[in-house]
What we know:
five-stranded mixed barrel, Spore Coat Polysaccharide Biosynthesis Protein SpsA, Chain A
Amino acid sequence: MSSANPRVQPVLLSGGSGTRLWPLSREAYPKQFLALAGERTMLQDTWERVAPLAAAAPIVVANEEHRFLAAEQLRLVGVEHAAILLEPVGRNTAPAIAAAALQALAGGDDPLLLVLPSDHVVRDVQAFRRAVETAAAVAGDALITFGIVPEAPETGFGYIQADAEGDGVRRVLRFVEKPDAATAQGYLDAGGYYWNSGMFLFRASRYLAELERFRPDILIAVRRAFETAKNDGDFIRLDKEAFAASPSDSIDYAVMEKTDHAMVLPVDIGWNDVGSWSALWEVSEQDGDGNAHHGDVIAVDTRNSYAYARRLVALVGVDDLVVVETDDAVLVARKDRVQQVKDVVAKLKADQRSHAVLHREVHRPWGSYDSIDADDGFQVKRIKVKPGARLSLQSHKHRAEHWIVVRGTARITRDNDVFDLHPNQSTYIPLGARHRLENPGSEMLEVIEVQSGGYLGEDDIVRYEDVYGRS
Length: 471
């Protein structure tokens, strides 16, 4: 960014659940933390595309349950000292951005906030950066949104109608809801209508002033949550009671549709919100038959289909399908019906099935565990512990455990004994024993755990000590 332009403070919104990309995206591990359109995750890609324009580490607004995922993924791309604001409950974008604005002002500056959802694809990164520079140079008192030049009469997005005057940033005439097909075609034919991207740029104080003008109830609640937040060094935990008191509202409804300072910059940046499997198919590399594949996929006499596979998946004589295979679920859908995946997730939640929330491999701050087999009275897990990490000191009331080390070095605490185990060595943890598993080495520790007992639920844990604040 040129020195003539004001300082830009990136704000990465990372609180979404991504239910329309189930079964790959789930509540505990949603799409912003997945590598869907490249080698890096969508959160990492979002930071990488804005990093050259940033004068500071990002402010990240994340679900409290995702705090370690966000911190670790940013660390892997070299981000240090990010301010990670934790939402104890979801309250949509208006409160989330308000909290970020308060954080930005807390250091004594009043920077331009570049607010970005962390789960979108932008193919033309250079055009994106040029657009940010253009907006930043003329922001002033304006609240600028980035409108996507439409490629088709899309019914899945809201639209922004812009003033016809001007070549760059223009005055917003109105925001319109997701249209039907005929209305969307009318917008495309008329010109001057742009897809609402959910990306914004404005000065922190300006946003708070407009929020106070139109939705003071939101600002009062968020300010109280921020002022009573707990800062534990790694995370800023917004006060739950105060934040929950905020009404849930989007920035569009709360501010942008009401203010007379709304401006829009039309951009053509190869943007896609990856809001469905069909959208992911659109941004994926396709073969000569229009098929896009991830994993071990064989397609015979198949066209315009998308397949995501962990194991071998074969498609024969099918067109316009989406097939997604994970360790514990398979999705098969017509490509034009994938928006209804959210109905599947709703059904899973109504039936209280864990498939809506958790993958078979469950990620934890110290690593992960994968439930590879289970039956009455026993369960087998594959446990991975990161170098230098350790589980809580804990005990169980209903199960005993056998641990077999298959890779790395395990340091075991069992009541008053502390000892190391190496590959092909094992130990037994009796029911009720206080125990801990940790990795003192420099490589990933992998352990096979065999549980036995009358109840094997994850809630059978009594924690005595935990470095992650869960005891």
